[in-house]
Amino acid sequence: MAEVVVEFGPSQPIGALREAAYRLIREASCLIDTIGERHVCRLIPKGEQTAEAIRARFLDLVTDENLRAKIAAETAPLRNVIVALAFGSLAGERDGSG
Amino acid sequence: MAGFRDAASFSLPTDLQLLPIRFERLTGDRYLVNNFVGDGLLLNRRDLDRIVALDLHPGDGLYERAFEKLLISTKGQQSQLQLLATRLRSRMAFLQQPPRSTYSSLPFDASTPALIAKSPAGVWTESATT
User: pTM of the predicted model, to two decimals?
Assistant: First the structure.
């Protein structure tokens, strides 16, 4: 089956593309080239899915990854507070006993 | 004599913040959304986007579900963070006291040719296994 080419502009972080490529690994292999400021993803289908289905699935995965990155960035300070509340006292106990 | 406060004084807080969450797409438009300690909620994409955008209002159903599952909290509210921290600490308690089976499965027995031991002088040496 012919490869599917999907291009992204410079505003798309390449980390999300790599993660999406990994999640798509059962359905297609993905080669990511960075040409200038563009990221070009070449998807080589492995099964019977149509090119359009592979493209749509890849774009969905990239969208999900972008949302995960946004959530992680927005909630990082709270995540640090929760971890500090959970384990900060352990560090104090360790320092006190050692 | 003090009177009753006006109704606005008893309105539910709307100054929300998103708590750390994870999500996975299931089949179709269904998402499994988890809070920081793994409690899950099945949502469609529209509801997930509403939670992330904090487009929630008391009484709309999703607000209550997101609050109950610790996906959102009110800014400045410490109790939600304390609860997540307590549960996180409980879940990770095994790191402080590993189960004994971990030790019993270590591959040190009579067939092990040598162990590395530290001598009283502080020099690392090889010592035979007894």
Answer: 0.76
